[in-house]
Amino acid sequence: MAGNLDDMFSNKETCNWFKASIALIITKQGLEKFVDSEIQKLHANVGRACGNCFTENLIKCPTYGVCRNAKSCSFHNTPGLLPCPCPMNICDQVKQNIASHHRYSNPSWKNTRTELWAANHWEIAKCYLPPDGYIDVASVQDTDFNGVISVILNCTHFDKCFSFNIAPRFPSPECILTQVRQIGRDVRHTSSCQVADSDLKNIILKLQSLLTDPVSLANDPNASSAINTLRKLKNNTQFITPDELLEHLKDARQNLVKINDQSERRSKEVDTVLLEIDTHMKQCLQQIEESENEARERISKEGKEVLAQIESHRLASAKMISEKEKEVKQKALETEKIAREVHQKAQEIEHTAHNVEIHAANVFQHTLTIDKKAQEIGNKIEIIEQKLNETEMINNDLEIEDLRRRLIQHYNNTLNLVTLSPLNPSFGSATPIDNVYATPNIFRMQMNKPTLKRDYPCYSNFQKKYDQCKEREICLYKDLFDTNDKLNGRIFLQGDAGTGKTMFVAKLVLDWCKVSHSSCYSGEDETDFNDFASLAGFSFVFLVTLRDSLDEREIPKMIKEHIIDMVYSDIDRDKAYILLQRIMEKKICLVIQDGLDEWRDTKGKLILPLMVECHNKCTLLITTRPWKLADERIRDSQIDGLYLLDGVKDVFTLSRKVMGYLVPEKLHLHYCFEQYVKSKQLEELLSKPILLKIIVSLWAANTCVEGSMCKIYSILQDGLLKKVSDEVAVIESVEEFMSA
Which of 173, 295, 312, 588 is 20 to 30 A from 19 (CA-CA)? Predict the structure, then answer.
């Protein structure tokens, strides 16, 4: 009996349907072990629940697909089943992990029982089953073919278990899992229980293709056994025992009974709905008939009242019409009288109009005369306005020239003289800056803002970058202000303390004074940066010392406080400040901010002093120590030019100038000083002008600077600090001073 199923059915296509049903059962048995094993892995990944929370406790009310009405919810129907967080803070995270593994983020919460999550891994799998019909399923064996395939399709954990894409996007074809699920639905829900030969062959091929997937199922024993059984079923050879066949027949009969029961249940539901509709229609017809009778009675009653009101209104209207006729006759008589008066007035108006026309002609002629005179007056006004504009421009130019003259005088008075010795005021007589100025070493730097120097501990990592900078040495003002023949907007000049940044910008300002005021020009300078014509492009140069502007945030106000207030009297300062704003808007200016590292925004918001957008013709030259540029708030986009000032080019030329003013009587010993510096290996220290002046002063005072770097710097620091009082003391030897 089990050898040939064709002998069991008189209809070939019915036999094919039964084979298709058996093929689905065989395939489901081949997948059971694989799916159950993967669900156990998923169970370990999502975590174990506390076992005390119910599904209703974890689901918010309302939740789509579970409960709709928060006021009368059938899902949360008892006090113990209301939404609340897990007391151990475990189950909510497990629920979230389950949802994150659902391909459509919509688990079937009604299928599962949360209190069993910790003990039964298949309760986790039930979240990926279809929403209806699986509440009582407890294992993979209890789950039908459609449910097993749905778990694989809906759970993203299985994405890496197959060689194909489980959820391809349109217009790509459906994957084999979706195809076999549809096969299961077609076989299970067919009303004729018949399958054609070609369809049966295609069904078995699809199922075999699924079971032979190379990633996980090709080497699975259960899947291999199922493939062999399907092959026997396809060839119509003996593949199951009589008992197994009897079980399959029972399953098929149970499916048919279930389909029949569903049909009967739906038929009864339809009959019930039709009965309810018929009852409702009868009630509606009765209500309509009652409403119709009430409406007729109300219309009859209200109709009589309306007729009475109409008759009353008719009589009142007739009386009113009679009265109106009398009023109309009276109005007609009055109108006729008024018409005669109007005719008389019209004649008078016509006569007046003739007079007006004559007067208008006179007025027009007079107007032409006035227009001619007005045009003559307008021409004269334009001439006056033109002369006023010319006068205003002349006055404006005079005011600008006056400001430039005052500015040059201010710079010559404040910047031209410098004090050489930081040690002894008796040596510190004021000296013209040109007499002791030495050409600085200035290099153009890369735009990645390297800020380290040779005396820093990590200089070895910086050496390559520093050497690249030295190849870009600049010797002209043009190289400082222009890049690719374009004027830089914001320029940063960095250098360590004492390297000569302030001296350089002071010399730059004085050079601008030379080209702006011919009387101040004293011939060609022997140093580099002697292209004074490059400075002539700036109408004004404003120097702001930021260490003296700690209370200000805006550059124009800094200029007003340190320049305008110094060169103008109190009554002229407001007018001069307005002139300053106009100049910064319309003229090409250079604004020098000396010592950015010594300035802090009082509100803690700005990293640079504020320059408004309308002053975009101004070029900013900012001096600072290297560490300031390490601030991440200074972006590369804010830097148009980055330069390094690394002391002076010829330290012995500068030392000769300094010695000539500090100790002129020892100038002939400058060669001895050079030998002294070389013997003590102090050349590196002399590259910083401030240290050079101290060392020259100490040498002139017979103070030896030698030893370790720590000792040398101690001697230099003592040299700066020893002039607390005005008494002059002589140190015989460093050893004696150190022992004291």
Answer: 173
